Amino acid sequence: MKTQLLIAALFFSGFAAAQQKKDSLKVNTIEAVTIRKQVFKKEGDRLVYDVASSPIAKGTNTFNLLKQTPMISSIDGKTLKILGKSDAVIYINNKKTNMDSEALIEMLKSTPSEDIQKIEVITVPGSEFQVESKEGVINIVMKKNRNNGYNGTMKMQNEQAYYNNPSAGGSFNFRQGKWSGNSNFRMGSWTDRQKYTLSNGDPTFRNESYGYNDDPNKNFTGGFNIDYEINRKQSLGFSYNMRYNKSFNSVLDITNWQNGVLTNRTVNNEDAQTRYHSFNLNYELKTDSIGSKLTSNVSYFWYNRDKVSFNESFPLNSDPNNKYSALHQSVPQIINNYAGNIDYIKKTANGATWLTGVSYNHTETDNDTQQDKLINGDFIIDPNQTNHFIYKENILGIYLNYERKLTEKLTGKIGARYEMTRSTGDIVEKTGFERNYNNLLPSLNLNYAINANHNLSYTFSSRIRRPRFWELNPSRTYFTPTNYTQNNPFILAAKYYNQELNYMYKNAFYANLSFTMVEDAMATDLIPLQGTVTAPKKDADGNIIYDGSGNQIMATTKFLRYIRTNYGKSRELGLTLGMNKSWFKDIWTTNYSVNLGYIAFKGAVLEDPTSMPVPGETEIIEPYIIDVKNYNMSATINNVIRLSSKKDWFLGVNYFFASKTAMEAGTIGVRQSFDISLKKIIGDWTIVAEVNDLFNQSYYRVQGVQPNGSYNNITNFYYPRLLNIGVTYNFGNQKLKKAREMKSANDAVKSRT
Hints:
Layout: H1 2-13, H2 20-31, E1 40-43, E2 46-49, H3 62-67, E3 72-73, E4 81-82, E5 86-92, E6 95-96, H4 101-110, E7 116-122, E8 136-142, E9 149-160, E10 164-176, E11 179-202, E12 205-229, E13 234-258, E14 261-286, E15 293-315, E16 325-330, E17 333-347, E18 353-375, E19 378-381, E20 387-405, E21 410-427, E22 431-449, E23 454-465, H5 469-472, E24 476-480, E25 483-486, E26 494-505, E27 509-522, E28 527-536, E29 554-563, E30 566-583, E31 588-605, E32 618-621, E33 624-642, E34 649-658, E35 661-663, E36 666-668, E37 671-682, E38 685-692, E39 700-705, E40 711-717, E41 722-732, H6 747-750
Parallel strand pairs: 5-8, 25-29
Antiparallel strand pairs: 1-2, 2-7, 3-4, 4-5, 5-6, 7-8, 9-10, 9-41, 10-11, 11-12, 11-40, 12-13, 13-14, 14-15, 15-16, 15-17, 16-18, 17-18, 18-19, 18-20, 20-21, 21-22, 22-23, 23-26, 24-25, 26-27, 27-30, 28-29, 28-32, 30-31, 31-33, 33-34, 34-37, 35-36, 36-39, 37-38, 38-41, 39-40
Helix pairs in contact: 1-2
Protein name: TonB-dependent receptor
Keywords: Cell outer membrane, Membrane, Receptor, Signal
Subcellular location: Cell outer membrane
């Protein structure tokens, strides 16, 4: 309001004295106007949700607040999506978070919504953001208050799914003079239960498998951030984050049928441990009084996952070809990353902003997979599946952005990122590769404020999607001896070109039209390759069987191998219509959206690049043809109803629906989720009871059929219905400003673990 009056005063001061009476009337008129702050609005390349002005912001946590934010959705309580499709990368105060996805979600769930000033949704990020493919950015802007003191949050929750899963965590923040810091921790135990139904075959053969997987986990995550203000222009910060996860005695139990005949039972016992440590040193120098600054980071990231498993198959009929088999497997992965970056932001007097920077990442992975198989009663090393894979990658990035106001109504931002990638992969004593490639990744954003009620913007961005490090490790994960997933060290980086046209009306209603092209596309899910292996037939002791003429008797075995690989190109067109609005004096707050989509995938997988048959064996792969065109839709309906005038009781009623959607490996079945929640605020205490997916309808089903009649169907029921009871206690000075969040130099690498 003060800004409005100042503008009016400057405007009127230039008029002649003869206009004073008329001008005075105008001033009085302006003073009488009540201006309501906009809760949801378009600013440049982002949509801004003003949390501090929203009626639903009090008494909840940041994760629940994000689910109520326009364009953001979550149907599993573990992930966030933008426009129902793009993965969300979380930034805090324009700096990417350092935690892995699980620790990040828990941090968001333990952060009070009262700490949040606004949430920015960037559906197509510019060149300055370290994101891949078609990922979008959620930037959480914290409230700023320089009061000394401390505050914190303690939270306990109990989740009842198939098993009971308790957890607890907390966060602590402090500020004293030039020192500030924050820390967080979470510990919990949970057991995932999944039920599988697998079927595959062709017009002459049918294979069916039924079973379950119990995966118990114990987890601890934590970290801290310390910031020291050297003087008014310089700051130095250090951050550390860690995670430890233990999953021992995970059991996969599968019963197998072939052509309607019970054949065998496969039991896989697995022990796994995951650990990581991340360190970052940050320096910031303010170079003027209008916002120009230099920032630099040096980071180190260490990741280690140890997995050992014992896979047994027990015969369940008298067929002599169906015999007991077993294998041991050890699949370790070690990642070391060293990174650094320097960014300089230059603000000019005419309101323009320059951003230039350089980043460097060096990554080494060591994956020494050992596999033994049972032969003649002893476990003998399997040379075909024992692989020591060493991967090295160097990425140098240079980026430049320029943003300014072109006219009173038109603003623009243009940028480019140039990346040079040098990588080598070596499967010791077997094979290797070297890949050197450069990518120029331009971006453009134009925003036109037609008038107070209408806003139109256009955004273009190009990205690449590099394979995750674990996807490169040439190891297998077995369901049965002939049904398994296979990683692929020869995957190429995919190239993405994203465009969006966004229209907003009265800062409440919006339409988003998007188009994405992908070259050297990787499948959304695994490609199911069916084939046969013909090898000499062996007896129960592993000896080759000969016929009466002394010739080897050959046996042919069918297999189903799920592989990660490039296949061709994809095109995706989407239209999102949505609204965010409060009704009846903010008693009822709605956030609705409908997504309409058209996708086209074109390509083929004609061979398995990872195939290395042993001498004497012949492997035949059936070509996998991808020619998919599909229309799909999804809808998100979120409601928050204030039940009391004291604003201490809230009811949440949410619904999600997704139609059948095609992907490269088949068609995903209809999914829907109905969620309800009840929240009670008692001073500094918040008690929440939630039921997610009340009717158990948001599980995974896919059906795939090839032109030659071969098929592959999967049903993965993971018991999505959850009852969650949570108690949160906020203590200390809740207006305390948090420590300066720091951008780590190796953020892009962490997302690939």
